[in-house]
Amino acid sequence: MSGVAFHPPIHLTIHPDEPIRTIDDAVKVVERHAKDPNSPQVKMLLLELTRAGTPQQVEMAGHVFREWARREGLLLVPPEDNA
Predict the structure, then answer these.
(1) Which residues are within 8 A (CB) of 60 and not within 5 positions of it... i.e. 6 or more apart?
(2) In this model, does residue 64 exceed pLDDT 70?
(3) What is the distance in angstroms between the CA of the first residue and the CA of the last residue of the chain?
(4) Is 57:1 a contact under the CB 8 Å cutoff?
(5) DSSP-based three-state secondary structure for 15
(6) Which end of the chain is more exposed for a tag (fewer CB within 10 A), N or C?
(7) β-bridge partners, 20
(8) Residue ranges per structural domain of the chain
């Protein structure tokens, strides 16, 4: 389900004008920006992203990706969420 969109899209500091909307986009970000690409956590994240086959799994993978991005310091919180 790589083409299924995350809702809401995930905004990152590395691409503030291009939110992450799909599994494919999220996988590319993890592969390019993980501080430790060989860590068990990153490998599990990539596995969860690539195995997401139902809308519910895509939603869960989006939550896991968002949390990973937050821990990596990549999550951009929109100004309206800081209010």
Answers:
(1) 48, 52
(2) yes
(3) 34
(4) yes
(5) strand
(6) C
(7) 10
(8) 5-77
Q: Poorest-confidence range of 28-37, 55-64, 73-82?
A: 73-82
Instruction: Provide the mean pLDDT of the chain.
Output: 89
Q: By three-state DSSP, how is residue 9 classified?
A: strand
pTM of the model: 0.86
In whole angstroms, give the CA distance from residue 77 to residue 38.
27
Instruction: Convert 65-79 to b/e letters by CB count within 10 Å (16 or more is b).
Output: bbebbeebebbeeee
- Using only C-alpha atoms, the chain has a radius of gyration, in whole angstroms, of 12
**Cβ within 8 Å of residue 3, ≥6 positions away:** 22, 23, 24
